[in-house]
């Protein structure tokens, strides 16, 4: 105290620090320059220009805008949404004209063929179609269910894989420093690989379908669970563990009675978080061929069937929204296990 | 002799000797208090008994067997322990906390499923009744109990395997003076009833004199007093807490981490 204030001075003489130091100003300038350079490379300026142009079109300031044209094209073909499905009767196995599925009906459309000699379309006959008014919607909903199932199994697979990972990533349970760092490294590695990349790879190995989706989700999240479980186990209060260990209880028993109860709330929270994000991820995994609703989305996008795309997006949005509401309401109660 | 310390020494580093050549015997059935101020080496001494620490030199004999890693599986289940911080599992029910003391007696599979045989569960209930808890506490979380109640649960846990020896490491250091007496009384009654020997560390002279059959005074890792509680006099107290004449009665001459024993204002027992 004494050497810090050698002699009392008047408050008017106290040295005040400048609000901005030179270092701070220089740092800000450097960051600004870097961002400016990067903005050119990422075409931020063009993005702003095109967005502004689109907005100007929207409020009627201009008659032409690039994004507006794209918007109008998509919107024109997206609405009305397609809920129904049409199938050629001749391609339906065991079709019985007198026993149609509920609410469905038959329509006929002329069959046309392009005549190369005459250079025009000619009618060659009639094709009969079975129309199911909610056929497509039902199809997409089932795809959504499939997506949810992928998310569930991806999460379960991740949990199963994370048990050995967490075990060896925890001091006091791992065998030695080698296994400790190896397990920690595997955890980081699986988290570092994006699901889409893993999914593409798994599609090559297992073919299209839900298998690569489940594997990709499980692989990616195993590292997440492994790391976070291990961290929580390491940080669990030692006191109760020592108390049980001192009676001669083995490691597994001590874990079950002195560690698991302590970490359960966090574990439940992690699983819930991963479950939610797996549902969102599973919807896009299909884009690379890994099953679920994403596969449907990709197919329709490639065909420019925007009215089908819109239906699919609607289903995804509603599902994610509903699930979020459910988990929100369950959260508090689940944690109190 | 039931419990023997034979020239026991424990050092954590070259210059950190926690227990420095301690020798004494505890006969069966005795309530023996190890008395000393903070850092005297009481916890270290107790942890040497149930193998949580290994002596650097000398040995501890429990019922004729030298305590060492090889025999821990047999020795540890015969020794119950009560801790200053209770060391219950906060989110586990009272019943499960008591049963957790019996883990060595059930199979790993049963433990994983959390299944205890009915006779163990009945025994846990009887012990809980003995320490003054009721049916309504069985499925309460340990975290929701008062300190006094938690220590009661911890005592029940220490006795679940019919231990021949109970170690109590400052069992009342985080309790108020009123509750401290109740808990020590309980510990003594339980040990009488179950014919267990007790080795209990304390830093409060008054409590030691009141409850101990015998007091072993420790300072800087060495024994400076050993005798019946009645023989613990002013001279013994000084040898334990330093030469300075204590101010205001008995505040020890060394810096103290725990609340001094006399800082008592009559409070209601939180256990009720
Ligand atoms: N794990 C350890 N590593 C290093 N030093 C330790 C360790 N445990 C105890 N010590 C040292 O040993 C000495 C005795 O500690 P011990 O805990 O046995 O004292 P105590 O009498 O129980 O004190 P308190 O009343 O504070 O619990 C202290 O100086 C302490 O710093
Ligand atoms: Mg201690």
Unreliable stretches of chain B = 245-272
Described by strand count, sense and barrel closure, the largest sheet of chain B is:
6 strands, mixed
Oligomeric state of this protein: heterodimer
Summing up helix and strand content along with how strands pair, one would put the structural category of chain B as alpha/beta
Low-confidence stretches of chain A: none
Annotation field: number of helices of chain A: 11
Please indicate the count of domains of chain A: 3
Helix residue percentage of chain A: 55-70%
Order of strands across the main sheet of chain B:
6-7-8-3-9-10
Give the CATH superfamily of the largest domain in chain A: MetI-like
Number of strands of chain A: 3
CATH topology of chain B: Rossmann fold
Report on this model:
The complex is a heterodimer of chains A (337) and B (272). Chain A is 65% helix and 8% strand. Chain A has 337 residues and is mainly alpha-helical. Chain A has a three-stranded antiparallel sheet. In chain A, a hairpin with a 4-residue loop joins β2 and β3. In chain A, α3 (66-78) crosses α11, α4 packs parallel to α7 and α8 (238-245) packs across α9. The radius of gyration of chain A is 31 Å and the shape is flat. Chain B has a single domain (3-232), classed as Rossmann fold (3-Layer(aba) Sandwich). Chain B has helices spanning 42-49, 72-75, 94-100, 108-113, 118-130, 147-159, 177-193, 205-211, 234-241, and strands at residues 3-13, 16-26, 31-35, 57-62, 65-66, 79-82, 165-169, 197-202, 214-219, 222-228. Chain B has a six-stranded mixed sheet, with helices on both faces. In chain B, α7 (177-193) links the parallel β7 (165-169) and β8 (197-202). Chain B is globular, with a radius of gyration of 19 Å. Mean pLDDT of chain B is 86; it is low at 245-272. The interface between A and B is medium-sized, with 22 and 32 residues. Bound molecules: adenosine-5'-triphosphate and magnesium ion.
